[in-house]
Amino acid sequence: MAEYSDIRTGRHCVFLLHAHLVFVTKFRHRIFSDIHLTRMEEIMTAVCADFETRLSEFNGGDDHVHLLVGFPPKIALSKLVNSLKGVSSRRMRQEFPELATHYYRGSKLWSGSYFAGSVGGAPLSIVRQYIEQQNRPV
């Protein structure tokens, strides 16, 4: 029953929806260190809160990030992704000017594509464990 502790309710529904998202940097540039990923998690947590979603798990490497997001059925995942990528790109450029040299044409941190997988086949504990085990650069 522990897997169902995240069940949420809306006005007319009860739901347990999670998506595993992966964003990669433009041209897979290896630019993130632990300090960047820590700040990125804070930014993405705030964006998720604005969308009434939850960032359940976050981790990444020097050229990508993994997110486990719990979301209500009224949210269009593509809009959430666009906001996560746009806001994080803008804020990271402002707060870490040294990253701007790796931005494509001065404004694009992320590749235009992304991975979104519905989480349901594997227990959430396995997906959380997978994300926790992603290597953070030193």
From TrEMBL:
Record GO biological process: DNA transposition
SMART domains referenced in this protein's UniProt entry, alphabetically: Y1_Tnp (SM01321)
Annotated GO MF terms: DNA binding; transposase activity
Transposase IS200-like domain location: 14-134
Protein's name according to its UniProt entry: IS200/IS605 family transposase
Species in which this protein is naturally found: Nonomuraea cypriaca
Gene label: tnpA
